[in-house]
Specification:
Layout (H helix, E strand, L loop, with lengths): L1 H11 L1 H27 L3 H17 L3 H15 L3 H6 L1 H21 L1
Helix pairs in contact: 1-2, 2-3, 2-6, 3-4, 4-6
Amino acid sequence: DAHILHAHREALGASKLRQLLRLLQVSLEQQGPLLLDAMQVLDYPEISGLAHRLAGACESLGGRSLAALLHRLELAAEAQAQQLCLEQLEPLREHLSATQQALRHLLVAL
C-alpha cells in the first residue's frame, strides 16, 4: 500500500523505512517456507503462529493483501479446518512471491 509506505517514509525517513522493509523481507524469506511446510503437513498450531506473526509484519508495512490472506489462514488453522487451510496453499505461494518481488523493487527505489 503506497499510502502507508509514504506515511512511514515521511515519519521515519528513507533509511529507517529501508531497514524495516529489509526486516520484513528476511521474515518472509525465513518464515514463509516454514509456513508452507507446516501447511503441507497440517500442523495447525505452527500454521496459526507463523501466519499471525507474518500478518502483523505485513500489515504494518502496507502488505494488506498478504496480511488478509494470512489472517484467514490463521483463523482456518485455529479452527483446524483442513480444506480451508489447503485451499490457501497456492494463493499463499503466489502472494509470498509477489510481496517479496515488490519488496525487492521498493528497496532498490529507496
